[in-house]
Write a structure and sequence with these properties.
With 921 residues, the protein is of the alpha+beta class. The protein contains 29 helices and 25 strands. Helix 23 links the parallel strand 20 and strand 21.
Length: 921
């Protein structure tokens, strides 16, 4: 498999686009444009709907057929018109010869013959993507599985697993651990009837018996079907009960891949510290043992692609296989077949994630191109891989991972060759290649990151340059260690330790890069952010290509980087604002508030539902130690984030309320505190204590209530915190019974109110009125299934003159008292809002409305509604709450003896499923 001129294997990848002279070959867009059209059509189809999508696809197909037919007829008539009879001779046909722009013979029909086939192909690909997406959506929304799910039927199902079971911790309020696995139905029986049906489903189950299963396993299980969320690519959600019964083992290839993954984990267990979990993630994408701190640091440094298998891993595998084939002097076709087999097994090993699928098809096309001697087809190969994958699985069109993978590869293919040629004139070839590839990938991914509302790492390019030399050795040595572990365990010791050295370097690079102050640049989100980023990216590339603007642009960029990295921390421009006294962290559907008590001390009130989110918030605030952690009550959305704090930073103690329910969460809290060596203290009503410059008073609960709708909520600690210039009322999830207790002579007035129970409608209006808060903070998760916050509660707060801020729309919220005496609220990434805390509620309400009128234009928080509109929204929310209560009553009976039944597991699994972000399932 050698090039006839040089005796060496031709290169596959970005280098294939350059000729021997260093010139960059012209872009071949014959397959790129159809791929883009198909991608856009598949992404837009869910918003259009199945029915309209099919009609649009049919109309486009008919229009293309008519246009092609008319063009062919016109070309035939032009040919007939050019025939003429020569004088004095018999009939003879003479074709007029037309000369094209390149001096060659031009086809009749003019320029239309050049663009019409390409346009027709692109439109037909778009129509096929529309029709395929619509048909898939229609098949999942109809049929026996969807009908059974709509009624919440109990079923017995025979399934084939299509993914690895994943343990999701803290996903449900009463059962903290759930196993999530994708599967395809084979046979399903419900309501006395059986069907043979193939539909994708998502299984939610307990740990028992599921975690050891491999993709391809055929199992039988009982459970209850529920409808999937809007936009999910499954027909239903199956809440399984009991252990699965395996009826058929997975295929041999899956067993081999599973054994190799297990051997990789066993080999990596020899390593110590953070490298133990990184090596399997780097080699085969297994991040089950990855330290959350390492994951956060890799993400902050722009190296998160290393913890998930991507095109780089596929390229390394192909490079090794083709290099070995060249050494043993295999021919092109044998080497190509060997490369395809190795690539296919690597996809099984790493699991077919969107980036792996894209990279594998691109790599397979590259291998075929090498085998056939056509090595300059990188961009068409990328277009073909995108087109094939989108037509096969339209759900990939809406996958952020797939978009990032394609964008990075396109940047490397299109931008890197020209940049490489320019940089080689000033830098050594290896350094120039690495800089060009890293910069091109980062630039190309910026629009996608902007659309996701993410941030761009300013240290990503240098971090990737430093990490690049260790990636290939760690990957290759990790695979060698896994194979050696399968053969004989002691053989894997040496390659594992060598791979550990490479991983240690990667961890060090990520740690240092993530620690750079102001190393991340926030990007706007949504379609507007995407368009702005595209315009900025195109302008930047255009300016870089022009010699006159290249140096001034470089000076401006360097100045901005220096200002952002060096000066921003000194000037403290941005978020959090200097002098913040209270921050409500954005932790989703849960509570986590940080209070600055002065003298370098901080108190965390509740820890939210996710350890990573609360740890990220504390890191952004620069909090490295906590004087106290207060847990208002023991529900998972206030407790499950504790592992992100305990054992990871110094904590002075944990304060809890009087009720020890739910028992499971209380046991977990005690275990976490005991493992970290942190004492637990119970706070009772009337207790007062001082921390730093703050004074704390426990207002409730006076007595522990039993028999309410939620005893833990009504046993929440209610505390009043007095800071030097700010008073705060912390209410946990207190509902009406506890609020009625607090109305009996307890001073409630405060500048800032943490709205009870995420702003639910279970509020006592007189309680909210007596607080007289000028700022109300609602800690609530976006898109939660409870309808929080209630429009009634928002209306009551606004009527009393409070400016309402919500973490689901404003993000994290900081509160401080300015020197002028105004209360200043700073939502993350948004402008300051000053709220005057003086005056009676009626007068303050007018001032608040005036001072916040500009704020509504800059935030996504809803403006004040008219009375009729508020009443309409209240009726809609009331109807939704009633339907939700009826559903819960049907799924989760009140009988305590039935809690462990299929219905009980279904309700808690269903609740947990709706709290899990789509990209983490």
């Amino acid at each position: 498999m050698t090039d006839g001129r040089s005796g060496r294997l031709p290169t596959v990848g970005p280098d294939a686009g350059e000729g021997s002279s260093g010139a960059v070959a012209a872009a071949d867009l014959r397959l790129v444009i159809p791929a883009i059209v198909a991608w856009a059509a598949a992404a837009a189809a869910p918003a259009i709907g199945p029915g309209p999508s099919l009609w649009v696809a049919l109309a486009v197909a008919v229009a293309v057929a008519v246009a092609v037919g008319l063009s062919t007829a016109r070309a035939s008539s032009l040919l007939a018109a050019r025939r003429r009879r020569l004088p004095g001779r018999g009939t003879r046909t003479v074709r007029q010869r037309r000369v094209g722009p390149d001096g060659g013979r031009a086809a009749p029909g003019g320029a239309a013959r050049t663009w019409l086939p390409a346009l027709a192909a692109a439109l037909l690909c778009g129509a096929a993507a529309l029709a395929g997406t619509a048909l898939r959506a229609d098949s999942r929304a109809s049929g026996p599985v969807a009908d059974l799910a709509a009624g919440g039927a109990a079923v017995r199902a025979e399934l084939i697993l299509t993914g690895d079971p994943v343990l999701q911790r803290g996903a449900a309020p009463r059962r903290a651990d759930l196993v999530i696995v994708r599967a395809r139905t084979v046979q399903i029986t419900g309501r006395g009837t059986g069907w043979l049906v193939r539909q994708p489903v998502l299984i939610l189950a307990r740990e028992d018996g599921w975690l050891g299963l491999l993709p391809g396993s055929r199992v039988m299980t009982n459970g209850r079907l529920q409808p999937a969320r809007d936009g999910d690519d499954v027909a239903a959600v199956l809440s399984a009960s009991g252990r699965p019964v395996q009826t058929r083992a997975p295929p041999m290839l899956q067993r081999s891949a599973g054994a190799l993954r297990a051997a990789m984990r066993d080999a990596a267990a020899r390593l110590s510290g953070r490298e133990r979990g990184l090596l399997p993630g780097l080699v085969d994408g297994d991040v089950s043992g990855l330290d959350p701190d390492v994951s956060d640091e890799f993400r902050a440094a722009g190296l998160s692609h290393l913890t998930a298998v991507s095109g780089a891993n596929c390229a390394i595998v192909l490079a090794v296989v083709l290099t070995v084939a060249r050494r043993v002097r295999l021919g092109r076709w044998p080497a190509g077949i060997l490369g395809l087999l190795a690539l296919g097994f690597f996809v099984l090993l790493a699991r077919p994630s969107p980036s792996v699928l894209r990279a594998s098809i691109t790599g397979a096309l590259g291998v075929v191109a090498v085998a056939t001697g056509r090595t300059r087809a990188a961009l068409p190969a990328l277009g073909c891989s995108v087109l094939v994958l989108v037509l096969m699985d339209p759900a990939l069109a809406r996958s952020p991972g797939f978009a990032l993978s394609v964008a990075a590869t396109a940047g490397i293919v299109v931008l890197a060759p020209g940049w490489r040629v320019s940089l080689r004139r000033r830098l050594p070839a290896p350094v120039a290649d690495a800089v060009a590839v890293a910069a091109a990938a980062q630039i190309a991914c910026t629009p996608v990151l902007a659309a996701m509302g993410s941030t761009m790492s300013l240290v990503a390019v240098p971090a990737n340059l430093l990490a690049a030399p260790a990636v290939a050795p760690a990957t290759v040595l990790g695979i060698v260690a896994a194979v050696a572990q399968l053969i004989w365990s002691p053989l894997s010791a040496l390659p594992t330790q060598l791979a550990g050295l490479a991983c240690r370097w990667l961890v060090a690079v990520a740690h240092v890069s993530a620690g750079v102050s102001a190393g991340r640049l926030p990007l706007p989100g949504g379609v507007a952010g995407f368009l702005v980023a595209v315009a900025a990216t195109v302008s930047l590339v255009f300016l870089v290509r022009r010699r006159r603007t290249r140096r001034p642009l470089g000076a401006v960029v360097a100045g901005l980087l220096v200002a952002n990295i060096a000066l921003v921390p000194i000037l403290h421009v941005g978020w959090p604002p200097r002098g913040w006294q209270l921050v409500a962290c954005d932790v989703g559907q849960g509570d986590a508030l940080v209070i600055n008590v002065g003298a370098g001390g901080y108190v965390l009130v509740d820890a939210g539902p996710d350890p990573g989110l609360v740890r990220s918030c504390l890191s952004q605030l620069g909090v490295g130690a906590l004087a106290l952690v207060v847990i208002t009550h023991d529900h998972s959305d206030h407790v499950e984030g504790l592992p992100g704090v305990l054992g990871r930073m110094p904590v002075g103690g944990v304060a809890v309320g009087p009720l020890r329910e739910p028992a499971l969460e209380w046991d977990r809290l005690r275990r976490w505190a005991g493992d970290a060596g942190v004492a637990i203290r119970t706070l009772s009503t009337g207790t007062t204590f001082a921390l730093g410059q703050s004074s704390w008073q426990v207002l409730g609960p006076r007595t522990v209530l039993h028999g309410t709708d939620s005893d833990p909520n009504n046993a929440s600690l209610v505390l009043r915190v007095q800071l030097p210039a700010l008073s705060i009322l912390l209410t946990g999830d207190a509902e009406q019974p506890l609020q009625d207790q607090l109305l009996q002579g307890v001073p409630l007035s405060a500048d800032v109110l943490k709205v009870p129970h995420h702003g639910s409608d279970r509020q006592e209006s007189s309680f909210l009125h007596d607080v007289h808060a000028r700022t109300a903070i609602v800690s609530v998760g976006a898109g939660n299934s409870y309808g929080h916050p209630s429009m009634r509660t928002i209306g009551l707060l606004e009527r009393d003159g409070a400016a309402v801020f919500r973490t689901d729309t404003n993000g994290a919220i900081a509160v401080l008292r300015a020197q002028s005496g105004l209360l200043t609220v700073v939502p993350r990434g948004e402008r300051h809002v000053s709220v005057n805390a003086a005056g009676p509620p009626a007068r303050a309400r007018d001032r608040v409305r005036d001072s916040t009128s500009a704020m509504w234009r800059w935030t996504r928080a809803p403006p004040a509604l008219s009375t009729s509109r508020r009443q309409s929204c209240a009726r809609a929310c009331s109807t939704r709450r009633l339907e939700t209560r009826r559903l819960r009553a049907a799924l989760w009976p009140r009988d305590e003896t039935n809690r462990n039944s299929v219905n009980g597991l279904s309700a808690e699994a269903w609740w947990g499923y709706h709290r899990i972000p789509k990209n983490s399932r």
